[in-house]
Design goal:
The protein is α/β, with parallel strands linked by helices. It contains twelve helices and eight strands. It has helices at 14-25, 41-64, 70-78, 103-114, 170-182, 198-214, 220-229, 231-235, 240-247, 249-263, 272-279, 298-318, and strands at residues 7-10, 30-34, 80-84, 94-97, 122-125, 145-150, 159-164, 186-189. An eight-stranded mixed β-sheet has the order 3-2-1-4-5-6-7-8. α1 (14-25) packs across α2 (41-64), α9 (240-247) packs across α10 (249-263) and α10 (249-263) packs across α11 (272-279). The chain is globular and about 60 Å long. The chain starts with 6 loop residues before the first strand and ends with a helix.
């Protein structure tokens, strides 16, 4: 196995703990670092002890669910070291910031760590919504800086949004993608835009779910039940754009128009690109093209593949 870089995770909160575990599961030595920031050393020690407790618990659950075995669990826990202070970042090839979602806080931390980390180390912010262009000026040599946004729980969910800043070097992006892929993650490159991919979709979905409850349409329990049995089941196997095509771009267009008219709310109006697809008669497999190409035998292959994927998921749910 290729020698794994030493990883520093800066911030031992909930997501930082999970990131540390994800890197350790991928075979990397990890330093989970509390910067302390003027707090008594005992406070940092308590935070790190609680982080260790939660990591041990989560590793135990992975063993119980037969994701890993006892020997691997012991090795994973042995790769994680709790440290206090920025000196712990020295000698690390990849520094993953995992501090609270505050621009001033992250800028201050990134500025402080810039004078400590190795010259060739990649510095990644774990921001879920903050654009890297709002953070990169705090980092010395911003060509080595980007955002790597993980989804909670980070040691389980495969997706990581990888977001280069305006001065990020291509080599930094490629090294980050390679590292994350080696952990078994699914890194997705994303342009510098607030919210990236995952959070931007999530914030709309979650607010709409709350509005259903606000308006008395359904209870939180029924909304969750509907989501897990419907979209949660479907989108585990079919991407959003794949489903737009499969259902038909025209169906999305008409549903969006109806919802806009029925509610009087512009948030439901069709996206401009949907209207353009309608004008070009690019409606999905039935017209040979939607957001993807279905010419030749591609339509049959696509539809067969998606039906098989859903059937396998159904079988898994029933077993």
């Amino acid at each position: 196995m290729t020698e794994r870089p030493t990883i520093a995770v800066l911030g031992p909160g909930r997501i930082g703990r999970q990131m540390a575990l994800a890197f350790a599961l991928g075979g990397c030595p990890v330093r989970l670092v509390d910067v302390k920031d003027g707090r008594p050393a005992a406070g940092a020690a308590r935070t790190l002890a609680d982080a260790r407790r939660e990591i041990v618990r989560d590793v135990g659950l992975m063993v119980e669910e037969r994701v890993i075995d006892e020997a691997e669990a012991a090795a994973v826990l042995g790769r994680i070291e709790e440290r206090v202070g920025l000196d712990a970042l020295k000698g690390c090839g990849f520094v993953q910031e995992a501090l609270p979602e505050s621009v001033p806080l992250k800028q201050a931390a990134l500025a402080r760590l810039s004078g400590v980390v190795d010259a060739d180390a990649i510095v990644a912010s774990g921001s879920s919504t903050i654009s890297p262009s709002h953070l990169c000026d705090a980092v010395e040599r911003p060509e080595r800086f980007l955002v790597a946004h993980w989804l909670n729980p980070a040691h389980i969910i495969p997706l990581v949004d990888v977001v280069p800043g305006p001065r990020t070097a291509p080599a930094t992006v490629e090294r980050t993608l390679a590292l994350l892929e080696s952990l078994g993650k699914v890194p997705v490159r994303c342009g510098d835009s607030p919210g990236f991919i995952g959070p931007r979709l999530q914030v709309l979905l979650m607010n709409e779910a709350v509005r259903l409850v606000e308006e008395g349409v359904a209870t939180p329990e029924d909304v969750d039940r509907a989501f897990k049995a419907g979209m949660g089941f479907r989108y585990a196997s079919i991407g959003i754009f794949e489903f737009i095509d499969w259902g038909g771009v025209d169906i999305l267009y008409r549903a969006s128009r109806y919802m806009t008219e029925a509610t009087g709310d512009e948030r439901f109006r069709p996206a401009r690109l949907v209207e353009e697809k309608m004008a070009r008669n690019e409606l999905g497999p039935k017209t040979g093209r939607g957001f993807f190409d279905y010419t030749g035998d591609r339509r049959e292959a696509f539809e067969t593949d998606k039906v098989r994927a859903l059937l396998r998921r159904l079988r898994s749910e029933r077993s």
